[in-house]
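--- STAGE predict ---
source: upstream dedup step, 1 unique chain passed
mode: sequence only
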Amino acid sequence: MKTNLIIVFVLSVVLLSCKNETEQTTNSDSGFIEISKAQFESEKMVMGEPVLYPFTDEVYFTGNIIPSLNGQAQISLPLPGIIDKIHCNPGQIISKGSVMFEVSGNEFIDLQKDFAASSAIVSGLESDYLRAKELYKENISTQKDFTYAESNFYAENAKNKALKLKLERMGLDVSKIEKGVFYVFYTIKSPINGFVSSINATIGQYIEPQQKIAEIIDDKSFQLKLFVFEKNINSIKTGQAVAFYLNGYKSLKHKATINAVGKTIIPDSKSIECFAVIDKLKSINMVSMQFVEGSVYTALDSVLSVPETAIIYSDNDPYLLMYEKEVDSIYYFKKIKVNTGRKANNYIELTEQLPAGKMLVNGIYNIQIE
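--- STAGE serialize ---
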């Protein structure tokens, strides 16, 4: 019991000593804040000067990850047909020119038949046209006969060329079809590199040309689509830096650069679409239409600033403690009311010039001022 009383007495003395030491930092009769050298060292106080620190003006945005216009492809059929085979799966990486589907159908057979028949007719009409042309030159036939042969040849030849283009766009050898060698099926190939984001067809399904049967997205073409409020649009310009994060992970920020600013206001949200190129795209795991948030850095300037730890408050007003002198191991500081502005990375902007000199920039949390 006696030991406990001794401990309580010692603690009381220590607390009283600390209280007295803290009180030494209050205003003295001279109007200065007095801090002993011992307290300065025990509180790990630091003196410094204002510095030029970079501050940015930011515009907040929300948006999405989207592919570029050339980085997304919707797959459909050039004519009605039946899906015979599917050579890809959703999520599969696919190269440009890879076979995705095999398609057959009566329409495909009829197209080849029409082309083969048209090719034979063109050959005959061309002979008639050339013969009529020679006879007309020799005044053996009339102009009417020549014109009739010419128009028939040109009309059928135009039809034949259109059919030929359709077949060639399907990747078929038209020289075989002209000879009556028909294909049983044709293939649908990927027009871009990317991954298969969706497949909307099954084997045996009859597909119309307007139906989308698959979609391919090139994740190497991903970009940011930003929605910026109308009131901030005058601040947004191409070339500005962007910081954004995915899925609410604010601690992991990625960089981008504005490369296009929209000119149309979206009525529902009163916002404007802007676009940005993503830095180090390959190192970021993203998916199409993923939600993002971030800021556009619209201005960057270096201003006079101090660490936030240099600011001491009295009645909610900010003050700095400016060093005046040292006498008999006592530091004397003068409190100066300041006007502050923006905050960034534990620095705070000073909106007015200060008198030259050092100040306390750290360790002031126990100091009392009036």
